[in-house]
């Protein structure tokens, strides 16, 4: 246990040091928000992959593997597919806009009202992304250090808030790269082979687990479709992901390095699913399947190696937590706050204060949420249900109008909230009905309010 504690403390100190280095490199608002738009292929790939592979992908991916077998890959696969599509088809036009937030696209295409409304939705989404991984880190420390959950959340989340606040995107990029390497070693080269070996190898998995555990569709076609609708499309429009796209030095770097990061996400999901399957063989009677990841680490890894894998888990979650935090902060300072400051733009000092304020809010919400997968589904249901249709329409449909966009965002968001309340956060109905209502209202209201004599330009 002492070795585990020492490794975790050294890791936390390293993250804070990188945050300080990031602060030294952040001399302007552009440095703070998008790393000066100057990342090369290695840094870009690392930070893009690290952004999406957080608590839900790691803890949730192993849990899905434990329950459903190899088909648990679909959570990470949906994220990876979205990353590939984004970097292949949308990265170049987005980079040409020279913007900081997703909602600025809506203002250029529609009007300031749509930007403000979408900023509220985007802020809620990004905040929950930060909450999901902060909760995940706290859960890991609770199990391995024996801390109360509330203190583990405040301790681990506080580290993320500190380095994100002082260093901005440069701090996130540097920490993401280290975290990406640690997570890769911990997941692929330590936990995967060791847990599989402890379980008796692949042949033993096939002998013990039901045949359905080896089917890629065992999780259910409805669930697979829902994951693609929520996570693949969510990645295409999420502020935390777009903000990483803006950091690339060139469209070519985004296209190739970004696509590589998407493929890495799919492989990460496969590894998580197999680890979950191994955990089911080793620990068939877990009281809480949410603890499958932590339990298999304790069971299959020796002291010393275990601490590296714990650090890898923290690495994955800290990357996503900081990405969600800075995305929420950027939306707050660039889209919402100027409205209350007479339109006066934010500067570097305001950006740092906004990140500190948003970080405190993330910690408060994390203290009252208890399920990482449900929290992630909540975030993406709000985002995709409210913003996918008007944002895609802004880019591809010339006849779209501000009134249509406003109606789609409002009704899509409300519909998602109603069905999450009625059927549960993890149900398929929230995303199905919110997209249907959002699309219908977008098309109908846009056609009713379109002025034939006016030619509107697309974003």
From TrEMBL:
GO terms for cellular component: plasma membrane. Gene3D superfamilies: Sodium/glucose cotransporter. Keywords: Cell membrane, Ion transport, Membrane, Sodium, Sodium transport, Symport, Transmembrane, Transmembrane helix, Transport. It is found in: Membrane. The lineage of its organism: Bacteria, Pseudomonadati, Pseudomonadota, Gammaproteobacteria, Woeseiales. It holds the Pfam family SSF. GO terms for biological process: carboxylic acid transport; sodium ion transport. This is Sodium:solute symporter. CDD domains: SLC5sbd_u3. It comes from Woeseia oceani. The keyword Zinc-finger does not apply. It is a multi-pass membrane protein. InterPro entries: Na/Glc_symporter_sf, Na/solute_symporter, Na/solute_symporter_CS, Sodium:Solute_Symporter. PROSITE patterns: NA_SOLUT_SYMP_1, NA_SOLUT_SYMP_3.
